[in-house]
Amino acid sequence: MNVIEIIKKKRDREDLSREEINFIVESFTKNKTPDYQFSAFLMASYLNGMSVAETSYLTEAMLYSGKVIDLKAIKGLKVDKHSTGGIGDKTSLIIAPIAAAAGVPVPMISGRGLGHTGGTLDKLEAIPGFRTDLTLDEYKNAVKKIGVVLIGQTKEIAPADKVIYSLRDVTGTVESIPLITASIMSKKLAEGIDGLVLDIKTGSGAFMKSMKDAEILANSLINTAKAFKKQVIGFITDMNQPLGNYIGNWFEVYESIMVLKGEVKGDLYELCLSLAGAMIFLGKKAGSIEEGIEISKEMIKSGKGYDKFVAMVKMQHGKIDIIENPNKYPKSKYYETISATNGYLGSVNNLEIGMAALELGAGRMTKEDVIDHKAGIIFHKKIGDATHKGEVLAELYSDSKDKLKSAKARVLKAVEYSNKKVTGPKLIKKIIY
Length: 433
Description:
Layout: H1 3-11, H2 18-29, H3 35-48, H4 52-63, E1 79-83, H5 91-101, E2 106-110, H6 120-124, H7 136-146, E3 148-152, H8 159-169, H9 177-190, E4 195-202, H10 211-227, E5 231-238, E6 246-247, H11 249-260, H12 267-282, H13 289-301, H14 304-315, H15 320-324, E7 334-339, E8 343-348, H16 350-362, E9 376-379, E10 386-387, E11 392-398, H17 401-414, E12 415-418, E13 428-432
Parallel strand pairs: 1-4, 2-3, 4-5
Antiparallel strand pairs: 5-13, 6-9, 7-11, 8-10, 8-12, 9-11
Helix pairs in contact: 1-3, 2-4, 2-8, 4-9, 4-10, 5-11, 5-12, 5-14, 9-10, 12-13, 16-17
């Protein structure tokens, strides 16, 4: 086969075969095709799109560029969840132990945050000692012993994704739906799963700002999962305001602990019940999502979900003492409060909230940046809530006074008030099977 002919074919809007896509991916991954040629292929794919079949071929080529983990020796249907990310989205920390406590094995390979969205690995690493760099043998052992594990991508998992993503990042092709789909699904399918729950965020703090784009991505991911004979359920959920009330790595671990202990209800709790309920349903431990939701409630009420979280932290070398006594966690040097005004919280530019948290030290501007796990925001109100002058709207925490100042300006700019009662956005906008 000839790389130039493959590029021309894609340029001319022709569909590529499984063999052609496999050839160009393998050739690039093994350094036989230079960056400039693969960049041309990426741009042609970005501009002209890919069919459902082409997207599944690309996923397959990236998947089999490395190891596909075999978990068949572990009883039960293995189920994971993937979220496209947002502000305050700590659902993985809550639903993985809930589903595992209900008897569904959860092998989860997660990512780091970059830009305004937080990463599950960064949140877990806020727990002193917690290891996300387990070997594949340790990964399998954790699933076998306690039914849940959350690790980062290893060099054996979809190595093609790593080199392709770094090129997408610098060639303006990150936003391509087929390329996003292949990147996500190649890693998820490599985990050894039988089922997958998808949480596609939409709104001001999401990667997919419009409902239309969120649906296109959801359907692309679902079609690809089905092409690999995986059970899949997709949720399109709101990201027009922070999920829960805590933003920042340790803050989100703390809120997750409170939800698992049954001490906090609200939007985060409700979404976690639905996502965990869907995982329990796909794992055949419930006859419907609704039954799965009831089981999830019971896992929280009985304390089994929290106990499973503690077992996971222990298995991955994290300090249990901090989980059991979260008030012992180090505090930021400085904090600032933002006061509300009279009326109702009308809208939130959630991207600005995420950027404010990033400025405080809770995220990375570049991959080399070091995260301050203590930094973050406690955002007390939801869209539609009544507000009163002098009431605390948000608390900001950082080790830098200058960062506090610029972050405060962002939060103030991000919120708008209304004189009339407004209705908050619907949390779950659509469920796609």
